[in-house]
Amino acid sequence: MAEMSRLMFRGNVDEIDVGRLHEACRRDQDRRPADARVDGRLTMISLKAKTEDNATRFPVEISVSPAEGVVLRAGYSPTPT
Fold first, then answer.
1. Residue 70 to residue 38: CA distance in whole angstroms
2. Can you give the pTM of this predicted structure?
3. Which terminus of the chain has a lower count of CB atoms within 10 Å, N or C?
4. CA nearest neighbour of 48 among 25, 78, 20, 18
5. How far apart, in Å, do the first and last CA atoms of the chain sit?
6. What is the pLDDT of residues 25-48, one digit of tens each?
7. 4 by DSSP, 3-state: which?
8. DSSP 44-73
9. Cβ(57)–Cβ(66) under 8 Å?
10. In Å, what is the CA distance from 68 to each residue of 33, 35, 36, 39, 71?
11. pLDDT band at 1, cuts 50/70/90?
């Protein structure tokens, strides 16, 4: 069982893109009803970067608040809009 009312996205953002992040986030999910969207709030940007495959990335966390009727699953890849 999972607590689906409090979802958290954890991922890595490239050093080039990390400066463009905003506190409020929105993702128009490809696997969703036409009128639904996934909103989130940026809660953490790590102060220390990780280097993987010759790329510098910063770990981030986004608290996710899906709309009614939106089904999210582990493994979905977000693409910011």
1. 8
2. 0.71
3. N
4. 18
5. 31
6. 655 555 545 556 777 888 999 999
7. coil
8. EE-SS-EEETTEEEEEEEEEEEEPTT----
9. no
10. 10, 10, 7, 11, 9
11. low
